[in-house]
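Render this sequence as a predicted structure.
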Amino acid sequence: MYLDQLQVFIQNGKYLELKQLEKKLNALRNCIMNYQKSSGQERMVWRKLGVVGIFTKVNIYEDDRNGLYDHLNNFGLLPHVVNIHWDKLSTDEQEGLESLTIQRGNYLRYWPNKSQTVSFDEQASEETILNKQEITEILNEWRIIKWKHDRLEKQWSLVKKEAVREWGSRDRKIKFSFGTLSLIKLYPQIPTNVILDQLDMSSLIRSGSVNYEKVYEFAAKGYFNKSDIDKFRNIKDVSLRYALMEMFQEAKRYEYYKRKLNYLSEWSRQR
């Protein structure tokens, strides 16, 4: 049933509409970002429209991975803060771990034919036209397009998720006149207790990445100071990221970070 619904979604033009809205949304966002950048303001609020734009500086680090991993391992924390990337493990390592992992199911990927795609040129052309409009017109259009895009994207995600459930014994790849559907197996999850038992330090460094949010939680709990971790990290560059959202979303984000900060502060007081 859901596979049929997925085909109808595509054949009725909803998928192509979703991609067109996506390009339109990107074009609108770029115009708003450039307007704000020219004003020199890190945070800009359009209160009547309920929209806020925020520039954030993000440090790009170069880590001393050997030193950092040794430091974390001395505290017995390495398995708790390192995420292993399955695709970075060797074939022999994957075979050795296969029976010890937790399988995570599948997801559906759609490879559209050319008739179902939107070119980058269309977005660039859209931005040229938008640059001639007033910023309030662009912002208002962004809100409308975002609502339409989010609604269609939610439908597309739901129908794909349900299609996976009823895939059954079909071939993992099905070709249609409008494109190809592929059932992709998710990489398995490696339990914490398996990591150190089955992988040596060189494998961990090669295939793992540190979850610094968890590391700083352990720092707040008193295992070590944050400065002990920072000495293994050197800032090599700073990038600028832009976020455009409705004001209620910013309020939710603020509340999330506030709860997170309170959580870490509570652990620090208990040390």
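Summary. Strands lie at 43-46, 51-63, 82-84, 106-112, 173-176, 179-185, 208-210, 233-246. The chain has twelve helices and eight strands.
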